[in-house]
Amino acid sequence: MAWSDADIGDLSGHTVLITGANSGLGLRSAQVLAGHGAHVLVGCRSVERGRAAIATIEGPAELLELDLADLASVRKAAAEVRERTNDRLDVLMNNAGVMGTPSSTTVDGFELQIGTNHLGHAALTWLLMPVLRATPGSRVVTLSSIAHRGDGLDVDDLNYQRRRYNAAGAYAQSKLANLLFALELDRRLRAAGDSVISVAAHPGMTDTSLAATSAQTRFGSTAAKIVAIGNKLVTQSVERGALPQLYAATAPGVVGGQYWGPGGPAELFGAPALAKPRAAALNHDLGRTLWERTAALTGVSPDPA
To answer: Where are the beta strands (DSSP E) in the chain?
Structure first.
């Protein structure tokens, strides 16, 4: 399928919240959607980086301070979204993520990668569901990764309290959790008769700063420079990598429960196409259990219930 961001129609009057929109895929998505007329809320932990990002966006955009590793910040941001948008939100793009971090915890004591990538986004989605439900044609786009095919997910030990911590395994777990959440959300929306669309996407192998940032954190600046150079040799551009999530957010005909990624070999590169989740992501029992465990950990009421 030949598709580019030039195929996106006029988004004037639409409101979009993108988490982690200060760099990489999130920033590119913000630039494209604002360029087509959408009012973009740039979700970002750092006010300074958020303002710098907004300076590169040609179109309506404003900063939303949001730290997904702090549930108090998530609650505050959700309340601000409702107030600023007068309860209208056309697209929630759960884009932000951390990768391969050393063993550490969020403000609320969760393992950092599952806490940021999954628990923070799940809480934000549930808190914003009344706004999404009130907006005709709204969509939730949750970013997963080809890494979701990794080590699997131990729903009884999400925070590595019993297992030996493994940075790559924790990242893979969080990305599987993202996909499980998106698909479980779709099932519950349809069961409730809601019109909100929940879809997932992944960028394949894309030249973002995630790998270099992970190398910097774990091994230092020299390793980060090597990884950054290697990335450019084996990955596609951010402009190409953002296409699946942009397609999922805007294209006509997208339906709930779909998973979009690059259509090339092994889903590493290429134009948007339907991606293939691993079997664990399609496990309804696992999705339901993760949903319930997420509610218990975050203290946020699931929506739909």
So the answer is: 15-19, 39-44, 61-65, 91-94, 139-143, 197-201, 259-262, 272-274
- The answer to whether 165 is a known catalytic residue is no
Q: Is the pLDDT of residue 254 over 50?
A: yes
* pTM for the full predicted model: 0.91
Residue given tokens 């959700």 in the structure block: 78
* DSSP character string of 26-81: HHHHHHHHHHTT-EEEEEES-HHHHHHHHTT--SSEEEEE--TT-HHHHHHHHHHH
Q: What's the mean pLDDT when you consider all of the chain? A: 92
| Integer Cα distance of 144 and 156 in angstroms | 21
Distance CA 140, CA 254 (A): 12
Residues belonging to the chain: 305
Residue whose structure tokens are 């779909």: 258
Catalytic member of 160, 165, 171, 259: 171
